[in-house]
Amino acid sequence: MSTEENIAKTIDGKTIAANIRTGIKEDVDKLVASGKRAPGIVVILVGDRQDSHTYVRNKKKTATEMGFVSIDCILPGNTSQEEVIEIVRKYNQMPEIDGILVQLPLPSHINEETVLNEIDITKDVDGFHPINIGKLAMRGRVPLFEPCTPKGCIELLLQSGVTIEGKNAVVLGRSNIVGLPVAMLLMNRNATVTICHSKTANLKEVVAQADILVAAIGVAKFVKKDWVKKGAVVIDVGMNTDENNKLCGDVDFNEVKHVASQITPVPGGVGPMTIAMLLKNTLISAMRRQGVEKL
Ligand SMILES: Nc1nc(=O)c2c([nH]1)NC[C@@H]1CN(c3ccc(C(=O)N[C@@H](CCC(=O)O)C(=O)O)cc3)C=[N+]21
């Protein structure tokens, strides 16, 4: 009897993202060398959530390293919805801004939908505007931008040699920013997609069908070894803290690595890809808005 133990290949999002950033930097250098503007991005942050400030700081650092013009618009927590809308409109009008990102979540007195509706769809580098999401959800329509975290998940699959077409993909979670759009991207690439959520019956049995499993529910180490089909590819979008206050995903990595064929770690998996895809979207926007088709 064979006692050979399976250990999944770890999908190294950190390295894959670094390579993508190198390509983006080269493209920005070419753009600037051709006499065009460097890409410009503004991040609008309302309030003082510590995690949001950390993300925004990281985005600015990375964007600046890539040669982008990066503006942070940090507003106090008591900023009114009307003031935020005025600021979005101001950046809509600024020709040197190619991407507008409103950091989520917004404080509870501000209506997220109302604010996101204001972003110029040609600058919607997050891909969160209802027109862009709507196009993503329709056959034969092409959004101006695809949401960054879902796009990062697909990129990790592609770069890891995973065939998406014809596979059973199971998505845990139905959020507007991850679960829903990642399901649509997988379906557009001809996977058979099942979306699971808190009311799904026989969750374990559904998850066990997954050739590709994307976990985006926000519950630490929720997915256990006995849930996962042998040889499945597991993409963990979770950002939770464990009992030792350490960052961990929605998947119990140390268990599931014994059954999966490939698995993303947290940190070092999807997270770094999100920022790389944001910069990629902003570069695409800067090229379009300056009439550059190829570099
Ligand atoms: N409008 C908007 N767009 C967003 O894209 C957006 C947002 N709002 N709100 C918050 C979430 C969260 N998010 C992350 C980005 C990068 C990492 C990341 O790089 N994580 C690293 C390091 C994490 C660490 O060490 O703290 C990793 O996973 O390895 C994580 C989370 C973007 N978000």
UniProtKB/TrEMBL annotation:
Signal peptide per UniProt: none
Tetrahydrofolate dehydrogenase/cyclohydrolase catalytic domain span: 11-126
UniProt subunit comment: Homodimer.
InterPro entries on file: Aminoacid_DH-like_N_sf, NAD(P)-bd_dom_sf, THF_DH/CycHdrlase, THF_DH/CycHdrlase_cat_dom, THF_DH/CycHdrlase_CS, THF_DH/CycHdrlase_NAD-bd_dom
Residue ranges occupied by any Tetrahydrofolate dehydrogenase/cyclohydrolase NAD(P)-binding domain in the UniProt entry: 147-288
Name used for this protein in its record: Methenyl tetrahydrofolate cyclohydrolase / NADP-dependent methylene H4F dehydrogenase
Biological processes, Gene Ontology terms: tetrahydrofolate interconversion
Source organism: Heterostelium pallidum (strain ATCC 26659 / Pp 5 / PN500)
Keyword line: Hydrolase, Multifunctional enzyme, NADP, One-carbon metabolism, Oxidoreductase
One of the record's GO molecular function terms: methenyltetrahydrofolate cyclohydrolase activity
Pathway(s) where this gene product acts: One-carbon metabolism; tetrahydrofolate interconversion
Residues spanning the membrane: none
GO annotation, cellular component aspect: cytosol
Pfam families, A to Z: THF_DHG_CYH, THF_DHG_CYH_C
